[in-house]
Design a protein that fits this description.
single chain; mainly alpha; 9 helices
Length: 161
């Protein structure tokens, strides 16, 4: 363990575990450690970014105050969009599916501009899905994401008229 604790992915695994059991405070500390070590070593943080985006969205969907939700959403969206641009795998789509949980929690409180921003984020993900190779587009996480994005877009459209 002495040697392992100096590696970013060691701490990422702890962050994922804390996220899975819903201990978001502990997850935050482990993500900070993982990012810090990655920066020190000059590592690409793409693996950390994927799970950190999930952490941000879970936090927004489950415990964040309304006043901080859009900041969390925007940070997660930036990480997810970068991953979708650089990678054709299903991982960022699995995380993007959580947009729906954030939307569902705050849809009645979001301003018109916020609703439009979330709808645009969903549209961006949907458009990216359309460019995936067919084998990736058929992955169950991508299909789940596509359904979540469609739900958000249709719901916002019906709310705004």
């Amino acid at each position: 363990i002495d040697r392992c604790k100096r590696y970013p992915l060691f701490w990422l695994q702890y962050a994922i575990g804390a996220l899975v059991v819903g201990d978001l405070t502990r997850a935050s500390k482990y993500f900070d450690t993982s990012y810090s070590l990655a920066q020190t070593k000059g590592w690409d943080t793409f693996q950390i970014d994927n799970h950190y985006a999930r952490y941000l969205l879970v936090r927004a969907a489950e415990e964040a105050a309304y006043e901080e939700v859009m900041e969390l959403f925007r940070h997660a969206r930036t990480l997810i969009n970068r991953q979708m641009k650089d990678d054709n795998l299903h991982y960022p789509y699995r995380v993007a599916s959580t947009y729906q949980s954030v939307y569902d929690r705050f849809q009645s409180r979001f301003s018109e501009a916020e609703l439009q921003e979330i709808s645009q984020a969903a549209r961006t993900v949907s458009e990216r899905i359309e460019t995936l190779p067919s084998d990736r587009a058929r992955h169950h996480y991508v299909k789940k994401c596509k359904a979540a994005m469609k739900y958000i877009e249709e719901s916002v459209t019906s709310r705004l008229g």
